[in-house]
Amino acid sequence: MKFHANLFNRLASIIVIFSVAVMVFAGCGRENSSKGKTITAWICSDANFQRFATKDSVDWYLDKIKATGFNQVCVDVKGADGQVLYDSDFLPQFIEDNGFILENRGWDYLGYFIEQAHKRGLKVMTSVAPFSVGIACKQFGAVYKRPELRQYTCVEYTPDGMIKLEDDLSEIGVNLNPCLKFSQDYGLRTLREVLSKYDVDALCLDYCRYPGGRTDFSDSSRVAFEKYLGYTLEAFPEEIFTYGPNGEEIPGKYYKQWWTWRGIVIRDFIEQVKLLRNEVRPDCKLEYWAASWLHAIYRNGQNWGSPDIKWYEGQSWADENYYKAAFADQLDVFITGTYLERVWNLEDNESIEYGLMRTNRDVCDACKVEGSIYAINHLDQFDDACYLCLRDTQGLMVFDLCQIVSNNLWDKIKSGIDRYKSECK
Q1: Which residue from 72, 104, 320, 371 could staple onto 393, CB 3.0 to 4.6 Å apart?
Q2: 63 with 108: CB under 8 angstroms?
């Protein structure tokens, strides 16, 4: 048996290496040449709030972004706090961050970014977190300004009982409960407003999920889950899971069905977003960012894989219907967050190279895949990380501009981009 196991492992390694070689060859092919790949600098709303207080700063950084080799900027206009950086008719404006206050900007933030980026030949993607309304640990954001939103936010199931998410100071993002019609309408109204008012080239859904596996356990979710099952639960949340003496989860009768249902909630919302995009701005790409570790984020309702790929078979939490939660086929682009510990090594599941390979496998051409990297990771190998995303996927996204600036990564990013382009000539 040892001989056969070793032989199997060697064959598996050969297959993986061959697959990557095919991807590299295809990546430099005519249809997927460097000219066709999107290279995006992500501009987080809060982290760059003070930096972009003036038009001059926008101009300067757009010039720098262009010179580095990026061809797109992602302007985050509604982040985890639930406030916005565009001219909204119903959402609260983001005017303060860490004591810096800008109550009257006097110019349209997103509109100016689009105008100036397009002048420079840069495309603009805008990022929107449709369900986000606050940051619990800071007691900051839309839900704290508008208490009427509290009736729609997620309820957290803890070993000590139920708590509203916005009251838990140990948590970060506060989301509206995604299964509620109010929450979905709130998110769709936001997206309709952005798409109808602004000439964006792409729209990226961010935080479009449940905040975590312990949310949402509200009465509303119970009713919706019972509708999905087709019958009434005898005990909730105990039939989902209970807590052991050390706080561990002990699966209940409907544990597996629960995760499938939550995934379907998110998948169905994305389908609504796609229909909205098709109606309002059909030329705008629909994109979605999520972490690359697909096996773990089922708890957030995020099955970004292809419905044709049964990657979850054998998982202790999955039932046979989990493919119904898959949403890659609803997207134009999936941006995979390979925010991992190492850069190279196809056999290391904590490497960017492995994460990109796994994403390509599980999306399986249902949509395009672009790699994304975290700018404070791998500072000594950041050029390699940029190169790798371009080599193995159809684009690169670097998060975040503030970290590019603070670590002076411009030259390393340019080096990685130029290296890829030179190989494709």
Answers
A1: 371
A2: no
